[in-house]
Amino acid sequence: MARRGERRVRVRTSVPPPRPALDHAGIRVVTSEHRGRVRRHSINPADYRCTVLAAQLADEWVKLTRALPIADGGSNYGGAVRKFATFTDEYAPTLGLDPADARLESDAIDLVETIYAWEDALRREFPHSKHANTLVRALLALIDQRASAGGAVSGNLKIRTQAPTAFRASRDKPLDEFTNAERIALRDAAREQVRATEARLARGRDLLAAGADPRDGGWQSLPNLLWAARAGMITSNVLQRELPAKPKWWPAEVREVLPAWTDEGKTRRPGVRALIRSLGRMLFADEMDLHAFRILLLLGMSDTTPEELHDLRVEDIEFTDGGVRLVQRKNRATRVRADLHPEQPAPRDPEDPYFAGAGTWDVQGLLRRLLAVTAFARGAFTGELWLFLAVDYRKGSGSLGAECAGFTHDQRRFTHWITARRDSGGNPLAISQPHDVRRLRKTTKVVRAVVLGGSVSDLAGDDHHVEVYRGHYGHGTTAHVLAGRAINRSQQWVFQRAAQKPVLVDAAAEPRLEEPEVADSLGLNSSQAKAIRAGEVDMGLTHCRNPYDSPHRSDGKVCHVAPAMCMLCRNAVIFTSQLPRLLMLSEHIERMRAALPPPQWQAVWGRQSAALKEVFTECADLLPAARQQVAALGLRLDLPLGQRTEFDR
Question: What span, in angstroms and rounded, lies between the C-alpha atoms of 553 and 177?
């Protein structure tokens, strides 16, 4: 205890000085608009230990997205900043460094080595995707932008931004088109879905006509519930308050609209949420319904991309006397164009009717039917003027909501639509993977190529450059098959022109060969017929019209490939008396089949074997006598030494 007059010196703790305001404080925000929805993209540097580095990169991200018309808010650049900052927080401590010291203008942490290490990590994370390469290039572009604008960037980092990425982007396998059988299967399934959707909505609107305000008529009537759904009064809280607690106590007509429940790992049976979704499907079309219209329209519009089709609004559609005019927007090309799709009248097939006869299956008819299907939703949800307007349950509000169909939600993609479809026999659709909607456009391009033919410039049309068509559409299987057939036809024509069959002179025409009428019918003149008749142009296997006019040389000298190529020469003339020689040649060729590899035999002897078979077919009745003559006289085939050493080794 201190004595009187004594005072103990109190040691006060030192108060740290206030932290100066930093220019890296604050959340960086970029907004973008897509199909009428404003999206907010943000980066908070305070979420990372390398706060200053994250702020510097985020500032460049904001500048870039404001300077360039990037529709998605620069998602690749923002993603690169987030992933690199996260990696730096984890990588710097492994080197005994503090991530807070990371700066673009400082070498306290070697950011060049950090970037290389980040590239290796991305390559392991995305081994079969271009995303890793895209993120690295986006980060280098942000740093290069800062350096080009005079910002502080270390010298080594500036050099790194001018160098390529450490690895190349992986090349994705190009998408192939659907086969013709798959195209027909998708078309038929989509048409069946359109009919079913129109029938379901017609039934729901008939019930709606009998409904009334449930606050007066009661909440346990199906028509009244539809009336409330149409008026926007249906929410999860309202139904939980107005309906019995368990669905088994609901009225039978209400329980019937619930989806069938199967225990596939689900923990809850259909309840209030399922009822709201079912009520909405009785009045409005959802994304699974709109898939069918999208498939049919893409199959019928060869010059329209899925992006242009999804972005259509009601005001972009104008029906004319000759078809429908669409104002289409292609964001990637920043292009807006008007395209006329003419009406295509076709005879109606009584075996292929469509519901209510509200149009046809061409582009104009499908657009009319789609507008009719979605018109009720546009009336109930004002301000939504999208062509592909889908209505579904919203978990946030617990009620029905409408928005432009994105076809990207879980369990509502193109592949899920295909999986849920059945053919006429009740079997799942046999559609090859991947189930990518872009393959529909390629299929349409191929169908157009099959119908029109022509050059690549004709097939590319007005919506593609020739090189774009060649690289993205001309590689398909069908295009290759068609090109192969065209090449085969042209080659066959050339072969037929260059190597005509030898002329076979039967025994009755041989004595009369010098007569003008007989010689002319065989394509010979009098001097050629006389020389052949006298044996002056006997080449060893056949006679020759003119040894100095060989198709195998153009210098006017005597033929140098006789008798090896006589069976493939247009100048060859065969007498029936020469059949024993040809039979011995055929036997020699068959012996060579066993001695030579198949590719070599086909290249050397294949065409001659086929030519001999044609000759033997024309004079089959003379072959037994010719074989008997070979055996009786002991004939042997005399081939030139050069032919044996060149072809038989």
Answer: 46
Dump pLDDT digits (tens) for 198-219.
Answer: 999 999 999 998 888 888 888 8
Q: How large is the angle between the packed helices 363-380 and 287-300, nearest 10 degrees? A: 150
| Residues 156 and 104: beta-carbon distance below 8 Å | no
* Torsion over CA: 229, 230, 231, 232 (sign): positive
Quick one: three-class SS letters along 624-649?
Answer: HHHHHHHHHHCCCCCCCHHHHHHHCC
CA 411-413-415 angle, to 5 degrees, is: 95
Taking the C-alpha atoms of residue 597 and residue 53, their distance in angstroms, rounded to an integer, is 68
Q: Under DSSP, is residue 177 helix (H, G, I), strand (E, B) or coil?
A: coil
More confident residue, 484 or 282: 282
Region for 12 from its dihedrals, namely left if φ exceeds 0, alpha if ψ lies in -120 to 50, beta otherwise: beta
- Tokens matching residue 633: 């006289």
Please give the Cα distance from 493 to 486 (Å, whole number).
11
Strands of the sheet with 503-505, listed across from one edge? 503-505, 572-575, 543-544
| Predicted model pTM | 0.63
With a CB cutoff of 8 Å and minimum separation 6, the contacts of 446 are 177, 473, 476, 478, 479
Helix, strand, coil percentages (3-state) for the chain, rounded to 5, are 50, 10, 40
Map tokens 């607690």 to a residue. Answer: 245
Does residue 435 contact residue 415 with C-beta atoms inside 8 Å?
yes
Place of tokens 């086929």: 610
Cβ 375 vs Cβ 388: under 8 Å: no
Contacts of 564 (CB under 8 A, 6+ apart): 640, 643, 647
Separation CA 161–CA 136 (nearest Å): 10
Q: Which of 308, 288, 313, 282 is nearest to 380 (CA)?
A: 282
Q: Give the tokens for residue 390.
A: 């889908």
Grade residue 229 by pLDDT with cuts at 50, 70 and 90: confident
Q: How far apart are CA 550 and CA 562, in angstroms?
A: 10
- Examine residue 434 and say whether the peptide bond preceding it is cis (omega within 30 degrees of 0): yes
Task: Give CA separation, 211 vs 215, 282, 320, in Å.
Answer: 12, 13, 38
